[in-house]
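Attaching the record inline, Q. Sequence:
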Amino acid sequence: MKTNILIGQSGGPTAAINASLSGVIREAVKSAGIGGIYGMLNGVEGLLERKIIDLRKSFKDAEDFGRLAATPAMALGSCRYKLPPLPPSMPPQAGGSARTPSSAEPPPDAAYGRILQIFRDFGIGMFFYIGGNDSMDTVRQLSAFFRANGEDVRCVGVPKTVDNDLRVTDHTPGFGSAAKYIACCVAELALDSSVYDMFNVIIVEIMGRNAGWLTAAAALARDSGCAAPQLIYLPESPFDPDGFIEKVKAYSAEKRLLIAAVSEGVRTKDGQYLSAAGASRDTFGHAALAGAGKYLENLVKERLGCKVRSIELSVLQRSAGHYASATDIAEAMTIGEEAVRAALAGKTGVMMTLERVSDEPYLVRCGTAPVEDCANLEKTVPAGWIVDGCDVGAEMLGYLRPLVKGRARCYEKGGAPEYLFLDKTIAAPAPANE
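Structure, as predicted:
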């Protein structure tokens, strides 16, 4: 008997998340044990509203899988919805607490009961959620719920995040492409800013609330032959504003340009974010950070009076599909395919992982880990990989280089990018196929 599957995406976009979606769909299409292939629009929030589409309708030929893999953002849309805590009769497994639902949300029994009914209506036997830390918590909760209710629904998490902060996996799909883009931007900024015979400072603010992996990737710009970035500040090391100014001042006596790569989440030794005094918070309670670069720009102007500007890469670093890493896109598609194979083999309550076998030649293999080992947990940069609080060492560079190799195919039409857009017609429930 065939089973139907349901796929969702959640969290922040990446240049590779649709490659994982493409991999799941492509492998499902090939499987004789899978019937309907459904996608839920806007994550679990859309699921609760029955915003479910038939994904088979969007694929006319084999090239469409490649077009989807090359399409940035999130083809199914995202959400910032947090499932309410499991009812007391179904306590969550280890891995973190959930936010108390607001009065506007359905009570736990109603929310989970609604999901169960929708899964039954659509004959869903396998559920794939592509996302980061919070998305893996959703996989954990749903897996525990289905088990507690005797439902044979296999729940598999497919990792993604440009932050690269998921535990139990060597790296996450989406990170390599963002890292490649950042390295390119820093190298090009160094060339652009070195044309005048005067000292100037560039502050590049890079994503990363608590983990500095993306900011560390700026060091790859040095492989292009430039000296930048001269300073790299990660959230893992306390930031000293006075020490920063002294370094800039000392550098100005000898050089014309200094580029500092700074994580948005850098904080002082007392734990205060440079950018977050009075910052708003999202639905998961995370501070909405922005402004570390501008803060340092103003500090340099005030203390040194030299030419200085700050540049916030913002969402460009996660949406630049035109410069995606070939390694990243290939791994993202493969991990999606492997997720289907894992579910077909009976795995549930797991997250797919990438295990690095070797650096030279670069080799990884896919595996699985209990989702409670990564849900709501963060992987930060090892202290030994950070040099003097303002740079990264050879271990980091050796880790990063394989992940940015190659340039993924960019589909074009008339010289402009060509993307795949899904048919988002809401589907009617259909039982699993015999």
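Residues 175-193 form the longest helix (19 residues). The chain has a mean pLDDT of 91.

More tomorrow.
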